[in-house]
Amino acid sequence: MRKRGRPFDSERTENNKQKIIDTAVELIKKHGADYLTVRNVCAAADVATGTFYHYFKNKDDLLMYFVRDISFGDCELTTPLTDIAGRIYELYMNLIERYMSLGKDFMKSFYTTNNKALSAYMSEADGKFADGTVMARSETEMTAALENGIIKEGTDIHAVCADICTIVKGCVFEWCLSDGDMDIKNTVRRIIERYLKEITLLDI
């Protein structure tokens, strides 16, 4: 028997949020990201629009959930800094595994040029990556590698991190085009290692 009061409300509130998220995934899989509107999500999830706006500012805010769910600033990495290519690969695998857990049908519809939320997340503003993003954490790691003599002096760390982000986006897009048949993990690792070899002082 459920207890009355706040615990029940809290549980129901969390269920409503998860219902919105799960419904968004199914709608994107079935109709594509363009189909996602506040009205369509609420109708399919059988929740009021007020409930939607309690958790999300708008459709783009909901879409951002799928890429900002991981706080990369707090992400624990086990690969040593001396293996900077492996460390950056490990960092990006947190994002790629998140993508893969959503399924290839979801990603094929989600990973498009029309997805403004994704475009905003995987870019920069005023020459800076947004705090908490995978690109910002990548820049922190690469800067530490530079300061520790692992990366060549004079390397434009910000440009390198932007390049790595572009590489990973291309790999994810290719994975979508191949209908999930591409070995994305080995491909990302191989390309990142080859790219960083040019600026790394230690053997990788």
Polypeptide structure, described:
With 204 residues, this protein is mainly α. It has two domains: 6-56, Arc Repressor Mutant, subunit A, CATH 1.10.10; 68-197. Helix content is 64%, strand content 0%. It has helices spanning 6-31, 38-45, 49-55, 59-68, 84-101, 104-110, 116-121, 134-147, 157-177, 184-197. Helix 6 crosses helix 9 (157-177). The radius of gyration is 20 Å and the shape is elongated.
Low-pLDDT ranges? 1-8
Number of domains: 2
In whole angstroms, how far apart are the ends?
A: 59 Å
Rg of Cα set? 20 Å
The count of helical stretches stands at 10
Rough shape? Answer: elongated
- H/E element sequence: HHHHHHHHHH
Number of strands: 0
Class computed from helices, strands and strand pairing = mainly alpha
Average pLDDT reading: 86
Major pleated sheet: none
Helix percentage:
55-70%
Report strand %.
Answer: under 5%
Summarize it.
Helices cover 64% and strands 0% of the residues. The protein is an all-alpha fold and 204 residues long.
Descriptive keywords:
2 domains; 64% helix; 204 residues; 10 helices; mainly alpha; Arc Repressor Mutant, subunit A; single chain; disordered N terminus
Topology diagram in text:
Blueprint: H1 6-31, H2 38-45, H3 49-55, H4 59-68, H5 84-101, H6 104-110, H7 116-121, H8 134-147, H9 157-177, H10 184-197
Helix pairs in contact: 1-2, 1-6, 5-8, 5-10, 6-9, 8-9, 9-10
